[in-house]
Amino acid sequence: MPDQFYYALEVALNGLTAGVMYALVALGFVLIFKASGIFNFAQGVMALFAALTLVGLQDGQIPFSHLINAIFGTELHNFGWNMPTLLAIPATMLVMVAFAWAVERLILRHLINQEPIILFMATIGLAYFLEGFGDIMWGAEVKRLDVGLPQGMSGALEEFTFQTFGYGFYLDRLDIWAAGIAAALVVSLTLFSQYTKQGRALRAVADDHQAALSVGISLRAIWVLTWAIAGFVALVAGIMWGSKSGVQFSLSLIALKALPVLMLGGFTSIPGAIVGGLMIGVGEKLFDFFLQPVIGGATENWFAYMLALAFLVFRPQGLFGEKIIERV
Amino acid sequence: MTQTATSERPDDGYITQDGRKIGGMLMEMRNITLRFGGVVAIKDISFNIREGEIRAIIGPNGAGKSSMLNVISGFYHPQEGDVIFRGEKRPRMKPYQVARLGIARTFQNIALFGGMSVLDNIMTGRLTHMRAGLVQQALWWGSAQREEVKNREKVEKIIDFLEIQHIRKTPVARLPYGLKKRVELARALAAEPKLLLLDEPMAGMNVEEKEDMSRFILDVNDEFGTTIALIEHDMGVVMDLSDRVVVMDYGKKIGDGTPDEIRNNQAVIDAYLGVAHD
Amino acid sequence: MLDAGRPDTTLLEVNNIEVLYNHVILALKGVSLTVPQGGITAILGGNGAGKSTTLKAISNLIHSERGEVTKGSVLYKGQNIVGKSPADLVSTGVIQVMEGRHCFEHLTVEENLLTGAYTRRDGRGATAADLELVYEYFPRLRERRKSQAGYTSGGEQQMTAIGRALMSRPEMILLDEPSMGLAPQLVEQIFEIVKRLNDEQGVTFLLAEQNTNVALRYATTGFILESGRVVMEGSAEALRENPDVKEFYLGMSDKGRKSFRDVRSYRRRKRWLA
Amino acid sequence: MLYREAGDFKSTYTADNQTFPIKFDRNAYYLTMAVAFGVVPFIINDYWAQAVVIPFLIYAIAALGLNILTGYCGQVSLGTGGFMAVGAYAAFKIMTAFPGLNIVLVIVMAGLVTAAVGVLFGLPSLRIKGFYLAVATLAAQFFLVWLFTRVPWFFNFSASGQINAPTRTLLGVPVTGATASSATVYLICLFFVVALAWLARNLTRGTLGRSWMAVRDMDIAAEIIGVNPLKAKLTAFAVSSFYIGISGALLFTVYLGAVEAGEVFGIDKSFLVLFMVIIGGLGSILGAFLGAFFLIVGPVLLKLLLVDNLGWPTDLAAHLEIMIIGALILIFLIAEPHGLAALWRTIKEKLRLWPFPY
Amino acid sequence: QDLHFPSLSYRTGPFAAGGIPFADGYSDYLTLINERDGGIGGLRIRQSECETAYNTERGVECYQSMRGDAPMVLQPLSTGITYQLIPRTIEDQIPMHTMGYGRTSAVNGEVFNWTFNYPATYWDAASVFINHVLAENSGDLSDKKIVLLYHNSAYGREPIRTLERLSETHGYTFLSIGVDSPGQEQGSQWLQIRRERPDYVIMWGWGVMNPTAIQEAANIRFPMENFYGNWWAGSEQDVRAAGEAAHGYKSLAMHRTGRDYPIYDDMQQYVIDAGLYAGTGEEVGTVLYSRGLYAAMLAVEAAKKAQEIHGVTEITPAMMRDGMEQLEITEARMAELGLPNFGPAFSVSCQNHSGSGEAMIQQWDANAQTWNLITDWIAPDRDLIMELVAEDSLAYAAENAITPACLN
Ligand SMILES: Nc1ncnc2c1ncn2[C@@H]1O[C@H](COP(=O)(O)OP(=O)(O)OP(=O)(O)O)[C@@H](O)[C@H]1O
Ligand SMILES: Nc1ncnc2c1ncn2[C@@H]1O[C@H](COP(=O)(O)OP(=O)(O)OP(=O)(O)O)[C@@H](O)[C@H]1O
Ligand SMILES: [Mg+2]
Ligand SMILES: [Mg+2]
Questions:
Q1: Fewer CB within a 10 Å sphere, N or C end of chain C?
Q2: Which CATH superfamily does the domain covering B14-273 fall into?
Q3: The whole model's pTM is what?
Q4: Listed residue (A54, A62, A65) closest to A144, CA to CA
Q5: Whose CA is nearest to atom 14 of ligand 2?
């Protein structure tokens, strides 16, 4: 039954693109982990916040209008202008830089040299805060995000494959774009972290805050830098996911899809995020495809984790993660 | 066996200069080779440790001394060679199984349990002597409690012995370097080991403290008959304390013998001592 | 470079500082030091005396251990540097080699050394030359330069840490127990390097050292700390000749060096302060 | 001086090993117990019992359990929600299969079942460490919840997949179902909390506790000293899951009464309990209580303040509430990274020294 | 002195977008009654709101905080919370109204004395949908394939049994595909749908799952007019985020929407212009706002009925229950209220707590940004549903030792 084969191929192909979308979120995690040893729980909320800000700016929404209205009994909603996307994206980026700066100033600075679990906890506090803050700032309703990326089935591909194989393959154009953007991100981030002085400093900070300080690396600058880059990655992820399903609270939950990817690829590896994403994407889709008749669907959530777990048992640091140094 | 002839003694032991009687073989390392990828940390080394002896291992940095201790305590598994413990070839063992044979150690980079108090750290050293089961402990039943008190008494003796009473309840992370070293020694002693491995126990101490430490080591050896293998870079200490010395360089053994023999061994002087050490 | 001819001007002045850890543990109870420019100054003292704390208070690394300087001032070239960030201090020329090595485990030895040059702005060529110099000082590091620092031996890590500090071309180095864990030959060698840098480039050293013997041979002045206070200070020769120092720090009795085997009692420590 | 430690000397090691070595603390503890058992059941109203106190007690048990695993043994777990679900569904199956069984026994058995499941999912911890393990335990979380929503046997084939706790009595008084009075439920939960806290205290101060902590602080050194890592980690998983299972069973049987795995035992539950443990203080029994208090009672108090007293709109209040909780977490961490319990200790140390600072 | 009408709302969390307009509509109607009529029977309405965040435990906390305060009727707005409250409300004698959600078998008022789910239930919805497509296909579905895309939760699984039973009767091929919460990721589900080429897809979704599904349907070029949502997948929030793509999407409607009803004149005058409205004012007239308003209207009508039966204005929750059980909504009454033909005409009885079970079909016009009704009221297959209800409710009664009986 060749059809079954083509279906499976199509499922795998779509798994690949889904994996790219996961990887986009995972990249933000990797960056911050690599640069400071912090497991940034707030990455998902950052993506949400970035997307909310982008939409808010595009639509000329007045920030905090709900709060202001509640307190002063005013009727504020909109500035009455629409910001063009090309302006709104840099403006959002500025907001994310300000956010990175605030995170360093108000939180990280006070937690130098603490254990990873404590820094992790701090990012949880941050996630809570940012979630409430984002809602108060921009409101909790579903928002439509459109930055002009194409969406929907790629007709050309379907046409072409139909001509060649007698079966038209389906791929979402948005996913194709996502793959391109992700590839660009991965290449530039890898170059940055592997071949620049700053990149080396990032890795040094992740190993030992105190020693990094002692050689004159400014933790403050490094942290603002990485959080700003992570903010940028969050914005990209927010745009891609937001274009798919609107911008609202659930966007922050995509972080959960990034975790197994991260684990599989290794917390410290930028290319690992992509490879992990692809493996998880294909793996979970095919697993669901083949086993749905037997055990029922909706296995994606746990299968991704189980797959990652299975790999970890053989490589405890993930596929490309830095080996955990065990010495006495 | 590649022992140098001078250091070879009759198998039933020997009498040291200060009159202590050293027994038979406790541990023998036979043709140990240990590699990490391309790095050869230990190259075909053999030596032995006798019962009741103080055995020093010296050598330049990166010679493979710590790796040797790691082999003895089962943390590294050599690619070649055998470890003979009490006359029997020791099978490949997990470190905790080795600990149960009565081998305790301290570490070059202090490896204390930072979140625990000094007392708890030392009590952990007695783990191999504790028997109470999970349920007994949970209910704090007679035997569990009795065992705890009994072991606590022993630990308190060690605490007195090492004069660390005043910091008993302090979390070790807060201690200065030297005291940490002492707590680590206490933890190893608490195991009442047959063989005590010390990796640079006196690094970071001043002369006065080294004198104290030396005294402790000698007393442990004296009072409990514990065999000691130690790595140390302070030649004064090594030469004064040890009965026999192994010298390593680049993973190879370049000397083995009494302190006097080592002091005058030209290969050792070239590779390590620099000047003939008095 | 600095003009090494005037060792009498004060480079660093620590005025009566108190250091508090975690808001409750008072580790330094009023420590004052002066470090002359172009000199080698040693801080001596037993375990827990507060040597490391003093150095970290100067380099302000104390902050990252939840400690703070609650009283007093630290003047570097006449400027108060309490509260200045360690990164700024490195740029000003003060760098610390921390006790216990603190290498970047996952970085290779060479990368570790290169991070030392992080604050430098004089180009790759100069950095490469200095890297070469460090390898010359520590040939062992050259052999291991591609290994991850986490897998090198204790002594190799110590060399890496010292080499890393040298890479920043500092004016002043705070060395915390540089000889710890190093083979005797290397200890001498390190101090020779210290001396050479001091002589040739006028680098000022402040070192905490347990190996009093060597330290006092190379240092110009020394301070002795006990329980967070300075109990004695003076020139190195004067300290060397002091009978108490001789007995407790140099291990010499009237009859010359005594054997570690002959020490009989533990409780002999003399307190300068009751 | 309010608080003194000086002059409180011990003459035996048993006395020195006491849970509350300081007399003041000891008395405070006895007083708390007396009030909790003797006074509270008579004065508590339904709102405070149902909305605040009972969930606090139940989550305190879960936090105790997770604290054993994460705080004492250093194995970060995000599978708590899944393990609570195991406890709840085990209790449900046992309850419905053996209707006559004593409810306390049912709950303890549910805990044992969870312990077994916990050990199974604890096996990877032998190789996987740190955050990798945390993420790996998510596999347990998602898989277990999927199982309980997917396999009808677990919910006795009910149409909606919900499980309902039938009414069970203890000494003739109903303890589950809608007829159970708040005071009864409160006492049941209190009983479990006190008993489990006591057990936890015993375990953590003994040999087992020390081997857990040794593994946490430096696992390699621990092994070289003689700690069997397999045994230490798996016992931690077992004991921890036992606690978490009991907490899940209580949540289902005496508190909620009806449960659907996906909704009640989702991933947010895992996070909630982990937050409690970290905010309260890793490796501290008191910390488990403080953390549970902070995250269960805190929001309710905030809500009472913002909505009922200040009359703010509920949504604004809810957003502010999470913002404030987030900010408080950050403030506490910055003040004392080792959690509320450590903050409390520091305050005590200061009090002790008062009026002479340091 | 007053009548307490609490609202368990969720203005935060993953489903806030749906919770906000409902809560606003509910509140605005009650405000209108207070402002215009001076309350119900002269007794003013006291509103209170408690945030559940769609979370079961917070729902229980809310319940505890309001149950001592004589709440007339509880609308928990979540299937999970409903299950929690069913036994508790029996104990506390507080009526609960789960309008178009919750436990369907509560239709049987002899078992579930205190729970009401008029005017329609999920099983009704499933049946209405099938009846609608039956009509479209001139009564024959034997060669059709229908896919249910459901939120993988108790809520989403509700219609499976009904649809399976109906497939036996009508001979269509039935396939159910689950989506895990929250449902942002449906790539593989839609790939499967593309492969299966069903004739119809019916969705039981909520929150972000809905716009995502619509977007994905558009992506695979699934004909939008063959894609249906239930009434929780048919609001502006669901379609707007999908933009153009959503044009032609259909959903069930259990009431009408829009501002073209006389009542909005009063609403404008008494509530909006007076600045007493609950939300931002923007969502007035939207689907979920209308649903909140409709729920409030039914609650007020039941209260009036209760006052009438018991002859007192100061009714208790127990009296309110009686009012609900004897509630009768006629077309005339709705017109009188300024909501002509807004919902189905129905009456409640002890045996049937669910009213008529009728619903309509609406279709989204993306250009005009409006929902247009395309059918009149469609009746479900009530016999089958009553059969299913009896099965499930009697099982529950047996399990919980309830002897089915009416309260009066
Ligand atoms: N991070 C810390 N937290 C709390 N107390 C500390 C900390 N670091 C040091 N201390 C305390 O400060 C005092 C001085 O310690 P310091 O490390 O400066 O001593 P030291 O002279 O360097 O000793 P050593 O020779 O052992 O290195 C000690 O009593 C120690 O307990
Ligand atoms: N786990 C490992 N992986 C890779 N290389 C290792 C490992 N352990 C040790 N080595 C290498 O083996 C050599 C010997 O190391 P070892 O720690 O035994 O030296 P040492 O004699 O104790 O030196 P020191 O006196 O400096 O502590 C070193 O070059 C070290 O880098
Ligand atoms: Mg070594
Ligand atoms: Mg020190």
A1: C
A2: P-loop containing nucleotide triphosphate hydrolases (3.40.50.300)
A3: 0.91
A4: A54
A5: B64
